[in-house]
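Two proteins follow. First one:
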Amino acid sequence: MNTQLEKAIIIKNEPWTPEYHLLEFAAPGISQQAAPGQFVHMKIPDRRDILLRRPFSIFKANSETLSILYKSVGSGTRHMAQLLTGQTVNLMGPLGKGFPVPDTNKKTLLVAGGYGMAALYLTAARAQAPGLLFAGGASKKDILCAQDFVELGWDVRLATEDGSCGMRGLVTTILDAWQSRHKESFEPELFACGPTGMLKAVAHRAKEWNCTAWISLDHYMACGMGACLACVQKINRDGEERLACTCKEGPVFEAREIIWEES
């Protein structure tokens, strides 16, 4: 799989929720190669004060187009919200090691926190059979694209900390409830993306349940190519502890490889 620099043309840039926007590009060179869990690096156009590219998980991709979801929180993303259809944007991608194909002999469980739902969509779209999505957030506004998973035939379970959508509580609460009812019936395979605390909790459960979990780490990836060493993660692979660049060897790692910092 070859990383490309591509002049992508904006097809759509519109509000998705009050806080998030959907940005869709015509970028066939990247989109044709995009795998679940990979990301693109985008150069913010017309802003000389923003030197570094910004990493964004690939939400949807087909033979011609790809899309991302982004939250307007800083000067760069606020500027992105003003980009117009037809404008050209410099994209680099697809980058990183994404999620593997789900094992058809296991029950596929996707676990998402907030923005992590977007990064898991391609895994759901390309899986041979629908599984379950467990998604959570602080409130209803943090549940981004649940209907997109429903339209793929997935069983979607939701939780919010304030109870405004789905069950009240953390996403691990509904995950634990499902596992306690089905632990004798299915061997799960977990795919997770979201805040670090959630990822650590999912990895802990995978160890406790003796199952495989694929974890997409939430690190800022400044260069996207493994050169700047800003996104290193301590891992244990084949009995050897070392530092791995999340942008190049990840962002997806098998949970047993990750050495979590003590909190």
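Second one, unrelated to the first:
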Amino acid sequence: MAAVTFRPYGLTHWILLAVTVAGGVLLVWLGRRYRNTPVGETFTRIFAIVQLTVTLGFMIIWLVPTFFDLHQSLPLQLSDLLRLVTAYALWSRRPWAFGLTYYWGLTLNPQAILTPDLQLDVAPALQFASYWLQHVLVMWAAVYLTWGLGLHPTWRSYRQALAVTVGWGAIVFVINRLLGTNYGYLNGKPGGASLLDLMGGWPWYLLVALAVLAAVWALITWPWTMRIGPADLDTEELGNAR
């Protein structure tokens, strides 16, 4: 059966983008309306359970022999780690978990939503649901935690996010070498055209990409740190101590 290609910015894509925006706005309103109340706490815990259930459910599905593909099914992508961390961030509001959700969820995750590269070749309906449900849930969670519950990044969380990203890259790079895979495009560029083509050859594009991430993450950290003052404090620790 020929693969079905999802067409970016067709009617379906625009509907999904509208749902993503509308859902984010609603979650921000709910977060602010019920912040620091039993209702808000219950809702956030349920959100965490839904996030974890969806994430683990699809991870298990893609490991089933019928659907398994060594080059795609292993939960080694940064997005796989992001989804697990997001569930924990919703449940605990720990500063480090929120920080990763903020940086990864608001810079890397939106690329998949805005410029989807989705080939529906095996169980198209399942692939479609997996792709969109998981990416949109993470987007909603990042928006809800930040503008709904009022959690903010700090320079500490910025440093932690960079360190974890580099650590993930080092581990997955070694696994790629052992298995002959290319998760995260750490061992080679994508086959088609991509932004990485503007960043030089391997391994230089990895260093350029990291530098770009570091700069962008610094830009989206600075306004929050100016707002809360010079002390490198985690507002999560002040207002949501666990």
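SUMMARY FIELD: The chain has a mean pLDDT of 89. The first strand starts at residue 4 and ends at 5.
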